[in-house]
Amino acid sequence: MPVEVTWWGHATCTVEDSGVRVLTDPLFARRLAHLRRRRGELPPPEAAVADAVLISHLHNDHLHLPSLARLSAGTRLIVPRGATRAVPGLARLGLRVTEVAPGDETAVGPLTVRAVPALHDGRRLPVGPRRSPALGYVITGESRTYFAGDTGLFDAMADVVGQVDVALLPVGGWGPYLGPGHLDAGRAAQALAALAPHRAIPVHYGTYWPIGMDGVRPHEFYSPGDEFVRQAARLAPGVSVHRLGHGERLGPEAAR
């Protein structure tokens, strides 16, 4: 499995397959509204180098316009259907925007990117009349990599995702409580058991936390990665789980 994955923090990853770099939900901010980055250095400039960028949904911590502005002009940006109407600033970034819905496939060089459903509120918040679906993506090249975006557990997940080699699964959030449409460590481990990939990487935890809440339920910030490793060993013992540090890369040698 020659795919390489770098976790930059939150839901931001670089997936390298067949010589193509795909970036997920780029968030390069030290502070976002009431959130601040509490762990990991800000991603270096190389993190913004990508052949294509995948946006899972329109929440500000996943579709962050200042972070997207760091991309090179003309970069392919794949977004949920309706995103350009809901977020007019997208049109001013100079990116090649492709809107997709579940089931749509997009070619990125030798790769195929397939949009799959996610169980999450995908609209631009706080409120808005236009809704866009929340998505996950399956990146297929020499390997098959599933980026789940932000999602809850749903019965058809394994069927719509299909067979994959690597799963990037959210295991937490940015506050002391997770609302509906999210995976905590236990539910992520259940998803892992259903998906049965060869390898998995926990994401979407341990990066951002509300300002002034450092002393409130701190285990919710620090523990999801380790708890996912523990739960996955129980529910999906055949899957190799890699809890990466910020900026750490998982290369093909890890499969040996």
Automatic annotation (TrEMBL):
Sample GO molecular function, one term? hydrolase activity
Q: Which SUPFAM superfamilies does the record match to this protein?
A: Metallo-hydrolase/oxidoreductase
**Family matches, as InterPro entries:** Metallo-B-lactamas, RibonucZ/Hydroxyglut_hydro, UPF0173_UPF0282_UlaG_hydrolase
Supply the alphabetized keyword list.
Hydrolase
The Metallo-beta-lactamase domain covers 21-205
Coiled coil, from the record: none
Q: Which Gene3D superfamilies match?
A: Ribonuclease Z/Hydroxyacylglutathione hydrolase-like
Report what the protein is called. MBL fold metallo-hydrolase
